[in-house]
Amino acid sequence: MPIPSSVIPSKPRVSRKRPATVTTPAPPALALVAAVYSEVDLTITLTFDRAIDYTGFDGTQISVFDPVDNNQQYLGTGGVSFMAADTIEVQLVSTGAYAGDFIHLDVTAATGIIATDGGAWAGVMDLVLPFP
User: Fold this and answer.
1) How far apart are alpha carbons 60 and 93 in whole angstroms?
2) For the structural domain made of 32-128, what CATH number should be given?
3) DSSP labels for 57-68?
């Protein structure tokens, strides 16, 4: 069957490879390597595995429970001090009496503490102090 002259055949399709997308892997999670509670100074010193950024710090997300020395529960709302690139000291404020068996730390992931490379800290629950 002849092709009518009014029909122009389409050009064959040419497949082109899409450029490869480069994905940057997420930085590793920030890890707590030490936590020291001072029942005298009412502070908790937190040391991490690398440099941190705490400009978005929210002390209401840090709780220290001391049924041994002071029989109190504390929040980290008294302020934060830079000690080293990987260490901060958090001033604790009493929120009331607490009875329990051991001194421990609870921290949510919403503290605003992150690694300078962007790694997030998931926080801790029932971490016995001092740590390690």
Assistant:
1) 10
2) 2.60.40.1220
3) --GGGEEEEETT
